[in-house]
Specification:
Shape: globular
Distance between the termini: 21 Å
Number of strands: 22
Low-confidence stretches: none
Largest sheet: 8 strands, parallel
Bound molecules: 1-deoxynojirimycin
Radius of gyration: 23 Å
Mean pLDDT: 97
Strand order of the largest sheet: 11-10-9-5-2-1-15-14
């Protein structure tokens, strides 16, 4: 691999707009707020921003339920603000990608409202049937809701009806939306749950503990066809890329979506490494098992053509709370995870707040949660007679609100001057951007250092990946390019460990100030191995 595409040579930073920066003090983050922080992102070394949805929406699922694909939600500002954001980012050499949510619209989208009339030309934009099948939704419960005399399909909430990609008109609408945004100068899309958009049949599914029906819509040929069309008729006309959110994909299925000759997507977010601490579904967590986690990452590194490397996003708990130790070894473990995130082969994605080591929310009461998925699972748990303490524990470990607390800019928060839409974490006192910038030893400054190294380094950007040791919570891998070699050594535990073999070379970066002959708690280092 000699010449990298711009998206292969980039650091991507995900912004969850509601929680990033509130400029007008209504408690909700907004686009002018993002503009005011572009210099911060530039200083960090960000090349591309992935913006979670800012479209007009009734906000049942915080913007993943779109009412108008060509309008900005009033909470976030105006189309002028959005144009300004694209322009101001461009001035700083930063590109923007947007979320493309096309599996479903909002039930308040005019197409859906029209489709309620059986004689409307929009009827066939969605799946309306006389009887529901046995499919279950990603948010638990049936995937069908009755409206008048018919049922409509929704793989997510009942306010997110699924679009029918058997109808060529739906595809035309999607092409039009994509052209609209790409013409404005955005650099591509993160494609929401893109591998479930095409339903082969609406037959009953095999009964499963979760997601009954999955075999009828997961990674279908129809989905590949849709993606090929969008690539050829839209994406190929711009300097832009796509990253797919692809639930439950194997490495083989990932490659079938991203290999260049397939001409579909450019990269995908896999979930397998995020599933290594759960049983069956995310609400039932096991203890974090470093070996399983590292093996999974390593397999994706070796088998997938080009990876989108991430440890956090707006749907996942905070990585330092999940894979590290956010109490005793907050700094060490957050930095060790930074090393992992930024030294793998592929495009690194950083989620807002990860760069300062923001932690899980640790809410104590259900009233503190805002996320609809969390509320639904809490209610379902109650029906199933799960004790209250257990339901709260499920949320504390896995709720999406863990990642959605307002960005911690200063000791007092700095996100808003009024009441934030979701409670701030009291640890903003100690974990915030203001203090992190001043402390040379901070997580933030470690990220900056590492990003700088990566930017000027062909070994990290282009080198091959080989794992050398995965055991006993130690992960050692090498990156090799043009005869030069880095070795990355990570201790993913608080226990002090012996090196499994001797490691020689020059230290490039480490999360401890010096080098010892043992691996200390959550130690991570990168060594340049002499030829
Ligand atoms: C995946 C998104 O990341 C998540 O936040 C959303 O709830 C679902 N897709 C439905 O759009």
């Amino acid at each position: 691999m000699s010449n990298l595409k711009f998206w292969q040579d980039a650091i991507v930073y995900q912004i969850y707009p509601r929680s990033f920066m509130d400029s007008n003090n209504d408690g909700i983050g907004d686009i002018p707020g993002i503009i005011s922080k572009l210099d911060y992102l530039k200083e960090l070394g960000v090349d591309i921003i992935w913006l979670s949805p800012v479209y007009d929406s009734p906000n049942d699922d915080n913007g993943y339920d779109i009412r108008d694909y060509k309008a900005i939600h009033k909470d976030f500002g105006t189309m002028e603000d959005m144009d300004k954001l694209i322009l101001e980012a461009k001035k700083r050499g930063i590109r923007i990608i947007m979320d493309l949510v096309i599996n479903h619209t909002s039930d308040e989208h005019p197409w859906f409202i029209e489709s309620k009339n059986p004689d409307s030309p929009y009827r066939n934009y969605y799946y309306w049937r006389d009887k529901p099948n046995n499919w279950t939704s990603f948010f638990s419960g049936s995937a069908w809701t009755k409206e008048n005399d018919a049922y409509y399909l929704h793989l997510f909430s009942k306010k997110q009806p699924d679009l029918n990609f058997h109808n060529p008109k739906v595809l035309d609408e999607v092409k039009d939306i994509m052209h609209f945004w790409l013409k404005k100068g955005i650099a591509g899309f993160r494609c929401d749950v893109i591998n479930v958009i095409f339903k082969n049949t609406l037959d009953d599914g095999k009964k499963r503990l979760v997601l009954t029906g999955l075999e009828h819509y997961h990674s279908t040929e129809g989905c590949h066809r849709v993606l090929k069309t969008l690539r050829k008729e839209v994406m190929d006309h711009y300097e832009a890329f796509t990253v797919g959110e692809t639930v439950l994909v194997t490495t083989k299925q990932a490659n079938e979506l991203i290999l260049p000759e397939r001409e579909e997507l450019d990269m995908v977010f896999g979930f397998e490494h995020m599933e290594t601490d759960q049983i069956n579904n995310k609400w039932f967590k096991t203890k974090f098992k470093p070996k399983k986690f590292m093996r999974t990452i390593s397999r994706w590194q070796k088998e997938v053509y080009w990876n989108a490397n991430y440890l956090e996003n707006h749907d996942q708990p905070r990585s330092v709370s999940r894979f590290g130790d956010d109490k005793m070894y907050h700094k060490e473990s957050a930095k060790m995870l930074a090393l992992l995130n930024l030294t793998l082969k592929g495009t690194p994605y950083i989620y807002e707040g990860q760069e300062i080591g923001m932690t899980n929310a640790y809410f104590k009461s259900i009233d503190e949660y805002e996320d609809l998925e969390s509320k639904r699972i809490y209610a379902l748990g109650k029906k199933l007679l799960f004790p209250k303490w257990y339901r709260l524990k499920m949320l504390r470990n896995a709720s999406r609100d863990n990642a959605r607390q307002p960005m911690q800019w200063t000791k007092t928060g700095g996100f808003t001057l009024s009441t934030p839409w979701l409670k701030e974490n009291p640890n903003k006192q100690d974990i915030n951007v203001f203090d992190s910038r001043k402390d040379p030893d901070s997580i933030l400054n470690f990220y900056k250092k590492l990003i700088k190294i990566r930017k000027n380094d062909d070994i990290l950007k282009k080198g091959s990946f080989n794992d050398l040791y995965i055991s006993n919570a130690i992960f050692i891998y090498e990156r090799v390019y043009d005869g030069e070699r880095y070795m990355i050594v990570l201790n993913m535990s608080k226990k002090i460990k012996r090196y499994p073999f001797e490691v020689y070379g020059d230290l490039v970066i480490s999360n401890y100030p010096d080098r010892a002959n043992v691996l200390r708690s959550y130690e991570g280092l990168m060594i340049k191995v002499s030829k």
